[in-house]
């Protein structure tokens, strides 16, 4: 499960960087690399990033239930 968390976290980071580029420079890196927003491979990447974001909710909830989030906030 740790490998899955690392892979999904990396995809969420990639998605965040891509959205940052879209917001700042109106440049969609994923679309540029894979041939446009409607290209099948680009759509696969978008779906994987979205699913990865959903998956990353689980570690966030687990951290909250164990007190890790509150402990970090108290610093």
Structural description of this entry:
By secondary structure, the chain is an all-alpha fold. The chain has one domain. It is built from 5 helices and no strands. α1 packs across α3. The longest helix has 24 residues. The radius of gyration is 15 Å and the shape is elongated. The two termini are 29 Å apart. The model has no long low-confidence stretch (mean pLDDT 90).
**SSE order:** HHHHH
- Weakly predicted, low-confidence segments: none
Shape verdict: elongated
**Structural class of the secondary elements?**
mainly alpha
**Fraction of residues in helices?**
over 70%
Average pLDDT value? 90
Count up the domains: 1
Termini separation comes to: 29 Å
In terms of DSSP E residues, the strand content is under 5%
Q: How much is the radius of gyration in Å? A: 15 Å
Please, how many helices? Answer: 5
Walk me through the topology:
Layout: H1 2-25, H2 29-34, H3 40-55, H4 57-66, H5 68-73
Helix pairs in contact: 1-3
Briefly, what is this?
With 75 residues, the chain is mainly alpha-helical. Helix content is 83%, strand content 0%.
């Amino acid at each position: 499960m740790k490998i899955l968390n690392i892979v999904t976290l990396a995809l969420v980071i990639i998605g965040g960087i891509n959205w940052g580029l879209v917001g700042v420079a109106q440049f969609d890196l994923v679309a540029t690399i894979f041939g446009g927003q409607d290209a099948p491979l680009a759509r696969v990447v978008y779906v994987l990033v979205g699913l990865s974001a959903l998956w990353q909710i689980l570690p966030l909830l687990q951290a909250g239930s164990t007190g890790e989030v509150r402990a970090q906030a108290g610093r």
